[in-house]
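Anyone have tokens for DNA-directed RNA polymerase subunit alpha? Sequence:
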Amino acid sequence: MIPQFTVSQNKNQFIIEPLPPGYGHTLGNALRRTLYTSIPGAAITSVKFGGIRHQFTAIGGVREDVVQLILNLKQVRLFYSGAEPMQISLDVKGPGEAKAGDFKLPATASIANPDFVLAHLADKNTKLEISATVESGLGYSPAEERQTSTVGVIPVDATFSPVVLVNYGVEATRVGRVTNFDRLILEITTDGTVSPESALKTAAQTLVDFFSGIVKPQSAQSAQSAQSAQSATVPGSIFSVEELDLPTRIANALQKAGFDTISSLISTSKPELSKVKNLGAKSVKIIELALRDRGFEFSL
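Reply: yep, here.
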């Protein structure tokens, strides 16, 4: 059982008990690592400032230089789960503050910290123009992965994970006369784009999916048979994988592995798919998000 104690809106404490001796650390460490690496989120991945060609400069009338502005933009937390990159823009005149909530976003996205201050504008002649690209993903992605030749576009290090901090502790508890059972105390803090409870359930389900691949391993031939049967029963599953608009690296890996249709994806287990060359758990999460956006789910 998991009693829940709400510490704040983005911070919850969960207690899991009773557990056999040693399983407190076994579960605690596994959940902690999964929470940090496998919960999908969104972040700004590149940015362009009006009238600025590179990041080592300043904007007239703006207290912060471009480097500081980029650091501030990394702290903007967004609700967005689409598979395709999304464009957002900001156009603010002084005097006053430019905040995260000043960004203009599509209806499919929103900002979790709209009051976060990005910049201070000195006077009415000061103008700040920003256009940024937002992507959904997992974990951390360095700017070097998104090099561009477009003048003025600056790639940004992106932290997709909505989980800010995970702490766990293990205490002794008793069941009847036996006193050496474990009590796992798990404390989760998020950035507000996902609740701690939802993050915990997602992490647990991720572990279940991988462990099920060990309990019930699937051969390549049985996977192919399942793909053929599924394609005949799932409406729309004959659509091409290209229609998911996946990142180029993931799309190429799927194509080389023979996944041409959506039916071939949803008929394969996530643990099996993560074994494909150049894919992994993070790539599978991105594929899962893209499938959900179009009304499909993994069937295994």
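Residues 196-215 form the longest helix (20 residues).
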